[in-house]
Amino acid sequence: MSDTPEAPRKSLMQTLELDTRLLGMIGAFIVLSIAFNLLTDGRFLTPRNVFNLTIQTVSVAIMSTGMVFVIVTRNIDLSVGALLATCSAVMAMMQTQILPDMLGIPLGSPLIAPIAIVAGLAVGALIGAFQGYMIGYLTIPAFIVTLGGLLVWRNTAWYMTRGQTIGPLDKAFQIFGGTNGTLGVFWSWLLAGLAVAFALYGLWSSRRAKRAHGFPVKPLWAEFTMAGIIAAAILGFVGTLNAYQIPTRRLARLFETRGEVMPEGYTEAYGLPVSVLVLIMVAILMTVIATRTRLGRYIFATGGNPDAAELSGINTRMLTVKVFALMGALTALSAVIASARLTNHSNDIGVLDELRVIAAAVIGGTALSGGFGTIRGAILGALIMQSLQSGMAMVGVDAPLQNIVVGGVLVLAVWVDILYRKKTGERL
Amino acid sequence: MTTPLVDMRDISLAFGGVKAVDNVSVDLHAGEVVGLLGHNGAGKSTLIKVLSGAYRADAGEIFIDGQKATIENPRDARKYNVETIYQTLALADNLDAASNLFLGRELTTRSGLLDEGRMEAEARKIMARLNPNFENFAAPVSALSGGQRQSVAIARAVYFNARILIMDEPTAALGPQETRMVAELITQLKSEGIGIFLISHDIHDVMTLCDRASVMKNGKLVGSVNVDEVTDDDLLGMIILGKQPGAKPA
Ligand SMILES: Nc1ncnc2c1ncn2[C@@H]1O[C@H](COP(=O)(O)OP(=O)(O)OP(=O)(O)O)[C@@H](O)[C@H]1O
Ligand SMILES: [Mg+2]
Questions:
Q1: Which atom belonging to ligand 1 lies closest to the Cα atom of B43?
Q2: CA-nearest residue of chain B to A309?
Q3: Which end of chain A, N or C, is less surrounded by CB atoms within 10 Å?
Q4: What is the ipTM of this complex?
Q5: In angstroms, rounded to a whole number, what is the distance separating the alpha carbons of residues B53 and B76?
Q6: Is A427 in contact with B142 (Cβ distance < 8 A)?
Q7: Contact check, Cβ <8 Å, B93/A427
Q8: Which residue in chain A is spatially nearest to B95 when comparing CA positions?
């Protein structure tokens, strides 16, 4: 044959190698933000609201990254909200009772927060591993194990605390709560600069690796466009947080507790909250696990075809234990952030979080049939859910209507996703 | 005669009441191709899945190089360098060809992370040998044709220096050119001293590629014969009627 096939002309999206689903979500999020901003006369996109929105999203977003792995392996975890309560109760009791009263570490000691956090993470991981054991080795369906877990852990927390609110939590512990722990302008800009440098290095080294193996690379202008968008997003986000000034009264009190007097006209901004920094680190770690490690590869392979994974020598039972242990540890981390934000442990902490977390993962493109899902999608899903909820509250939509809309959006999002997959011919 | 590479003795396995494999013994020498024949549901796949670690036999023993082998799962089988092309291919549909090729045995960088670049480069090399028309390295294998998927499964079995290779209908979905390449591959692997169990419904293939053939019917072994000493019709008689051929059994 004489006619050699011509290289198909690539669309702009293909040239940039963008993930269209992610792009669709980002587009939806931008439309949503602008709509709320118009409806609230510009109150939605103020530095203050962006700051609040991010810290409200962190707890669910962290858990949603773990839920991606759970759902990708064709499981579900209905117990995360309840487990969050148990972990929160354990950490609160460690701080206010067990460590000071039983182990003689005085209140306010710098040891309290780290010990409490380690204990909480250990409890979360162990309970998760135990549930994973029942699912993987005893082959009880995940739906049942974690439905039971929902009742068990919600009420374990209640039983432990007798339903009382426990607090105030340790001052160092509260750093993870949002407003009580922020990096300030200088460190926030420094981190933003490092993040940009790191992202650019990542782009460059992946290009170099492709070259080294002789695989096709994007045109240079496409690389520069991507780099520009990423840098603008990082700097814009941090710039917004750095524009949120700490209220003068609050600053004055800070100076007072240090025994100083605040100079006239002194101002200071919040900058990046520590909790958001934790979320960013979790996101990076979980993305690396998902895409660059054996563990992640086995998680996706098992979701795609459990029998094939088993026949390839993957210990799928142990994998289930690991996935649920990781989910438990992330739930404990979310418990740190949620209880630190409230400055105490309350009996209803984490109620309905399992639904928010599952919804975030699913809106983020995780397929309930297993095998597909991304960490960044789930985090974006959590952000969209939270924006919807906060935005409606700001507009003055009644609480029941808010929930009705969120429920409807969840179903709609999955339907759109199904249409999208049909169109792209992705088989499930 | 030399010690067989694989000696499966008196293997039995039942699914509920169905005796899928009933007291079957087969053996395989290094550099030998043994064909496993039988009608649909005769128990061929079940028998070889005992060797590949997918199933555990209810009774019977496996000897490898004359030593008793314990194969309780696919990981054990891989330790004995048993590689298998399953009839169902056993591919993770959501992953690409290279990921499937290296599944369970990924190449990593010094820092312990997956070395995607090297895995894809290796995948391109082996696929060039097996199926030069194969180009689609970026797509998940669910987007490949049946024959392309089969090529991936074959590549996975031959890439890792198998000593014992199990091929369960490896050419069922392949075109004529690809089938010929697999036949050449079998001849080459045989000359390298690899022992191969080849399950096939194609008597002609068995007659040309195999040294011996073992025939199963209803879970039982009808007999094992040297292909040189039997005719096509003898084999057909064994498969369909379960009757011993006139030729002397091996
Ligand atoms: N997982 C299973 N559960 C229950 N019964 C099974 C299972 N696998 C196989 N069987 C039964 O065992 C018998 C042997 O099946 P097997 O797959 O070994 O046949 P085969 O010789 O490979 O057939 P084919 O040529 O169609 O591939 C059949 O009767 C089948 O129904
Ligand atoms: Mg079969």
A1: 18
A2: B92
A3: N
A4: 0.90
A5: 7
A6: yes
A7: yes
A8: A301
Decide whether any atom of ligand 1 lies within 6 Å of the B43 Cβ: yes
B221 CA distance to ligand 1 middle (Å) = 15
Residue nearest ligand 1's atom 24 by CA: B40
**Is B6 within the bounds of a domain?**
yes
Residue from A417, A381, A27 nearest A35 by CA: A27
**Which residues are CB-contacts of B36 (< 8 A; sequence separation ≥ 6)?**
B26, B44, B47, B48, B197, B198, B199, B200, B213, B214, B215, B216
B203 plus B247 within the same structural domain: yes
- Per-residue model confidence (pLDDT) at position A12: 63
Q: Give chain B's domain count.
A: 2
Q: Which domain holds residue B65?
A: 1-81+167-250
Single residue among B135, B160, B185 that ends a domain in this structure: B160
| B54 and B17 part of one domain | yes
Helix (H, G, I), strand (E, B) or coil at B127: helix
For position A97, what pLDDT does the model report? Answer: 86
Distance in Å, alpha carbon of A422 to nearest chain B alpha carbon? 13
CB A63 within 8 A of CB A331: yes
Question: How many CB atoms sit inside 10 A of residue A48's CB?
Answer: 14
Q: What is the pTM of this model?
A: 0.91
Which token pair is A37?
């901003």
Whether residues B16 and B67 share a domain: the answer is yes
The whole-number average pLDDT for the span A26-35 is 92
Give the largest Cα separation in chain B, rounded.
Answer: 63
